Structures are given as structure tokens and as C-alpha cells.
């Protein structure tokens, strides 16, 4: 477990989480990346030390704290090309920011190229001693986080697009379809009669997962760092970057039960098998034998629908209800051609100078680079964005930095909800017939990435930047270690190719 003022030391090690050995990025020496554990209101002062030295992978880095809003600390957002220059190998950078009054389940990951697919990813939980759902579970173990990750036998820079994972890692362990079957699976231990809050986080680079635990109901109480009214389901579809908390009651006979996470894509039939413990982990009751489960899947499943999520406080969407009634109304068009994705006819190309540094250097908002990918937004306004579905290589989960947004219409739904819509930071935009719409208020000056969280699609340009209150950014975001932050660019520029 890592605390908010500890050090993250990055290095390259060789591991074989599914039986196939390859080099990976390790955090503090471990491939199963450690949990960063904070309490609401904590101030982070995390030193990231870059000791990466394997030439077959990216060696520079940058770490993003996914879902934390970075109010007043846009420089610590970790988005390379937007909020900072990369941390060159042999160098370090101190991320200083507060969590404000935000608590919940988050994660951290490299935001440099496709580096997180090589292992720089882990869960980050901000605990709230006054959580509104405390009455629903006993706190004997709130440390259980279940992470889902896609795993490749090839380093990310050479994963061919479209990427197809070799295996699914649940808490860092898994089996591939044609790989060894004696690889230990992750075990989640419970005691009969107890209630647990489990936190589920998708650290995936590409696939979404259908997640379930045989024989058990999942009472969903949080989505993407937002408390929600409890909903009972037996299956959750979780897209890359999304998180959920659910309460699980250990109310079944003492035994072992399969934990399942079925990806939508994968090699050698990975996307449709649970044979031999593939796509699986084990829920083990105390005193159950150390054996594989004999359990089978619930059928039919009740699957969580995003449009059924209600914020715990039942808050309405910001602004005047009704499509097009926000202060700023944007409609994006997506396209795919020649191996690149386009948003309103522009494919995102990372600028040489990070957007934030351009802004602080006094550049005119109209001249910010990359041209055609920057959307300037005024402060204190309600913004509505309509995101038509994109069938090519979909479904596409879109993530916004610096904000959680209200989902007025979810993929798969035909109804708008301005009264009590779910709030989250990654939304699936769905397919050809969908018209996903979101709203947020510009209360956080900064340049904020808005992109498809399928890493290979971000690399293919499926991204834009919202430049929010350009004139107010400098005043709203004092950078405590400004020199260190600017030096990252100097050092990176001088790096031998
Ligand atoms: Cu989780 Cu821009 O990322």
C-alpha cells in the first residue's frame, strides 16, 4: 500500500503473470501494482522516480490520477502533451495536489503513449470516513479492490492494431487460452455472514468486461467516484477506466465461487471461454477447501444499465433541462480513415509543447496547438456535448479529465434524463443508433483531455482538449514546483533520440 506522500519508483522487470514471461513496467518493484490509499481531504505529494531502462518499451513517463479532479492543480494531472512534458529516464517529478472533498474509487496509470498497457497501472482509493453508504456494509475489510486488466504477450509499442489481448488479469493474475493451466488464480477471501464493500476497477487498455461472481448479488453503490442509490444486479459491464463499488454479502454455503470477467475481444477465443480458469478468479469462503469452484453462472443475469444509476443526492443535471438548452452546446462527429480517428475532421496529434505550457506562456487561445483539437470554453457555463456512436472498433469509452459529467442519455437508451442522471467520468458512446449526451459546468480552469480510453485509439487521434477559462488558468493553478515542472521539458528536449 502506498500513501499520498510516498514515492513511486518505476523500473523494468520480467514477470510471467499468465505463464508467459516478458518485460513489464513495475511500480515499487511489483507488477501487480500497489494500491494508493488516501483519505478524503488528503494532500498528495507523490514523487515519481523514473528508473525505466528497457529499450523495447517506452522509457519516458507521466502518471495520471484518473478521476481526481485536480481543482487548482491542472499541472499535476499527468497528461503528457496537455499538462506536462514527460519525465525522462533517470529523472523524477513530484505530483502535488489535493483530493478536495472527493472520495471514491479511482486509479492511476501512465499517460505517456500506450505505456500503461505494459503495466504502469494500479488502483487508487480515497476513503471517506463519513461515506453515505456506511450503513450498508461492515468495515472489516474495505481494502478489497478487484482490478481487471488486459494482458499482451507483446510490448505495447508493437502491439498490432487492432489489439487483441492474450489474457485477462484479475488482480494481476490470469491464464491465456493456450497457456499453462497451473498458473495460480487470484483469491478473494470472505468470511461467512459478513458484508463487504468490493471496489471493481477496469485498468483495461481496450476490452470491456462482463463481470460477475457466481451465486452472489452485487449491490452497486458507487460509480466512478460518485455514490449512487443501491441497485442489485448479478452482472456489470465495465468499460476501460470505469469503476464501481458493490456490497457483497457472504450469505452462500461455505465453498469456492468463480469470479468472472469476460472480455469483448481476445486471442484464441478468449472472448467466449471460462474453461480452465480463463477470465477467472476465485471467491473463497473461510474454511472452504483450497480447490477450484464447482459453481456455475447465474442465468439469466440481471445486468446493470447505466441509465438506471441515480446519484445518491438525486441531483439534477446542471443548467436548463432540454437538448440544446445549455450555455454551450457542442456536437461531435467521429470518423475513421487511413488508420486514424477524427473528431470533427481533426485527428489529435500531441503537440511538442504541452497545452498548459503554451497557455502559461501567454499564447492566444486561437493559436493553441494542436490546431483543430482545442475547444476553448468560458468559465461558469453549462456545456452540453452530444457524442454520436462510432461503430468502427467500438464500443468507445470516452473519459474527461478535470470533471465528472452528467450522462443525460446513455448508450442503448432512447430517453433523456435531466432530473437525476448518473454522474461519471468515463462513458461508453455506443454504436450507430446511439446519441449519448453529457453535461458539465466549467468550474475548473485548465486544459482537460477528453478522449477515447482505448489506448490504441488515443494513439490514433481519438481525442480533443477542452481549454477551460484560458485567461483564468494561471491564477487558479499556482504551480508549487514550477521550475521542476518546466525543467521536464528542457530535459526531455535534450534527450538523445
Ligand atoms: Cu485514465 Cu486520459 O485517462
TrEMBL record:
Q: Which organism is it from?
A: Coprinellus micaceus (Glistening ink-cap mushroom)
Q: Which CDD domains match?
A: CuRO_3_Tv-LCC_like
Keyword Acetylation among UniProt keywords: no
Its family remark reads: Belongs to the multicopper oxidase family.
> Which keywords annotate this record?
Copper, Disulfide bond, Glycoprotein, Metal-binding, Oxidoreductase, Signal
Domain Plastocyanin-like residues, every copy: 12-130, 142-287, 350-470
Q: Which InterPro entries match?
A: Cu-oxidase-like_N (IPR011707), Cu-oxidase_2nd (IPR001117), Cu-oxidase_C (IPR011706), Cu-oxidase_fam (IPR045087), Cu_oxidase_CS (IPR033138), Cu_oxidase_Cu_BS (IPR002355), Cupredoxin (IPR008972)
Q: Identify this protein by name.
A: Laccase 1
Q: Does the keyword Disulfide bond belong to this entry?
A: yes
Give the molecular function GO annotations: copper ion binding; oxidoreductase activity
Amino acid at each position: 500500500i502506498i500513501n499520498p506522500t510516498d514515492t513511486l519508483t518505476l523500473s523494468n522487470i520480467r514477470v510471467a503473470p499468465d505463464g508467459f514471461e516478458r518485460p513489464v513496467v513495475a511500480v515499487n518493484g511489483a507488477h501487480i501494482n500497489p494500491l494508493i490509499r488516501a483519505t478524503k481531504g488528503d494532500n498528495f505529494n507523490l514523487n515519481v522516480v523514473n528508473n525505466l531502462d528497457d529499450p523495447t518499451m517506452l522509457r519516458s513517463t507521466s502518471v495520471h490520477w484518473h478521476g481526481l479532479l485536480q481543482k487548482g492543480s491542472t499541472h499535476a494531472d499527468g497528461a503528457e502533451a496537455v499538462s506536462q512534458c514527460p519525465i525522462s529516464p533517470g529523472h523524477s517529478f513530484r505530483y502535488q495536489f489535493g483530493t478536495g472533498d472527493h472520495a471514491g474509487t479511482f486509479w492511476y496509470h501512465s499517460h505517456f503513449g500506450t505505456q500503461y498497457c505494459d503495466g504502469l497501472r494500479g488502483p487508487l482509493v480515497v476513503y471517506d470516513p463519513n461515506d453515505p453508504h456506511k450503513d450498508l456494509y461492515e468495515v472489516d475489510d474495505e481494502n478489497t479492490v478487484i482490478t481487471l486488466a488486459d494482458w499482451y504477450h507483446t510490448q505495447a509499442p508493437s502491439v498490432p492494431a487492432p489489439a487483441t489481448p492474450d489474457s485477462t488479469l484479475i488482480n494481476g493474475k490470469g491464464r491465456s487460452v493456450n497457456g499453462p493451466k497451473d498458473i495460480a488464480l487470484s483469491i478473494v477471501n470472505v468470511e461467512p455472514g459478513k458484508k463487504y464493500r468490493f471496489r471493481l476497477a477496469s485498468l483495461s487498455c481496450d476490452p470491456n468486461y462482463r463481470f460477475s461472481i457466481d451465486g452472489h448479488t452485487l449491490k452497486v453503490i458507487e460509480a466512478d467516484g460518485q455514490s449512487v442509490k443501491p441497485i442489485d444486479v448479478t452482472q456489470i459491464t465495465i468499460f476501460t477506466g470505469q469503476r464501481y463499488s458493490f456490497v457483497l454479502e457472504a450469505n452462500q454455503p461455505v465453498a469456492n465461487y468463480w469470479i468472472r470477467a469476460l472480455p469483448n475481444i481476445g486471442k484464441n477465443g478468449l472472448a467466449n471461454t471460462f474453461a480452465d480458469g480463463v477470465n477467472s478468479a476465485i471467491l473463497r469462503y473461510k474454511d472452504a477447501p483450497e480447490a477450484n469452484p464447482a459453481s456455475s453462472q447465474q442465468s439469466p443475469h440481471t445486468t446493470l444499465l447505466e441509465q438506471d444509476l441515480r446519484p445518491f443526492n438525486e441531483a439534477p443535471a446542471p443548467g436548463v433541462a432540454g437538448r440544446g438548452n445549455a450555455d454551450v452546446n457542442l456536437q461531435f462527429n467521429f470518423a475513421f480513415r487511413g488508420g486514424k480517428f477524427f473528431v470533427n475532421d481533426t485527428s489529435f496529434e500531441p503537440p511538442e509543447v504541452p497545452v498548459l505550457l503554451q497557455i502559461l506562456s501567454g499564447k492566444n487561445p486561437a493559436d493553441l496547438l494542436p490546431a483543430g483539437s482545442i475547444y476553448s470554453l468560458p468559465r461558469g457555463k453549462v456545456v452540453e456535448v452530444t457524442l454520436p456512436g462510432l461503430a468502427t472498433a467500438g464500443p468507445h469509452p470516452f473519459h474527461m479529465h478535470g470533471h465528472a459529467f452528467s450522462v443525460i442519455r446513455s448508450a442503448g437508451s432512447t430517453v433523456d434524463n435531466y432530473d437525476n442522471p448518473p454522474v461519471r467520468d468515463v462513458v461508453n458512446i455506443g454504436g450507430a443508433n446511439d446519441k449519448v449526451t453529457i453535461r458539465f459546468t466549467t468550474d475548473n480552469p485548465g486544459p482537460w483531455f477528453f478522449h477515447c480510453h482505448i489506448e490504441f485509439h488515443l494513439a490514433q487521434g481519438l481525442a480533443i482538449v477542452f481549454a477551460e477559462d484560458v485567461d483564468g488558468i494561471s491564477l487558479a493553478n499556482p504551480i508549487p514546483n514550477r521550475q521542476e515542472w518546466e525543467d521536464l521539458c528542457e530535459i526531455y528536449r535534450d534527450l538523445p533520440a
